[in-house]
Structures are given as structure tokens and as C-alpha cells.
Amino acid sequence: MTSASSGDLKQRVISAVLLIPLVLLAVWLGGSVFLLLVAVAVVLMAYEWSRVTGAASWRVDGLVQWLTVLSAIAALVMTNDFLIFSGIIAMGCAVAAVAGVALRSTNVWRILGIPYLALGSWMLCVGWFG
Description:
Radius of gyration: 17 Å
Order of helices and strands: HHHHH
Helix content: over 70%
């Protein structure tokens, strides 16, 4: 059985074999290397979230997603203050909502990507830097 799904599985296994050592190295080194790993993961997750929620392209709302999450992570690492983190996420949601209205594509799922992406990233950073 050589269907498209078997090709997908092969690609996923190759990706895992290549990425697992890099992720383990970043976790072991910690600090800035770990933060860089989280930042790259946030950008990739925001891109994928935009694709899953039906964005025709990675427009302003996708850009707002990853900028907001990266800003919130930076605020958390620098101050370790949940209130600052929450404020940045709320502002990002507001900007994404305004951007969605301005683009006439108010897709609430894309806007909800901001807290969704931020929570997992925040938990990683709290676990490491908290």
C-alpha cells in the first residue's frame, strides 16, 4: 500500500529523526538557545494555525499572532510577571480583532490562536525560567 499517507509518515519519521537531537540539545543547553527554540516553534505554530483556520495567506493576523506571543514570552522571561504577560496577550487579541475587521475576514478562530499559542509557550518558559 503506497498511498499519500505512507509518504506523509515517511516524511514525519525523517523530520523526527532530524529534530529530536536538536530539541534535546537546546533543552540541555538552556538559556538563550532554549528561548530561540521556543521562538522558532512559536513562528511555525502561528503559521500552521493560520493555515488550519483557513487563512488564504499568512496575513496581518498571523503576523500579529507570533509577534504578540514572542513579546509576551520576552516580558515573562525579563520580569516573570503574569500580569504583564496577560496584558500583552489581551492587546494582541484586540489588534488581531481590529486587523480581522479591517481585512473584512473576522475569523474568531484565527484571533483565538493568540491565547492558544501563548499558553503553551508560556508554560515552557515558566517551567524553564520560572
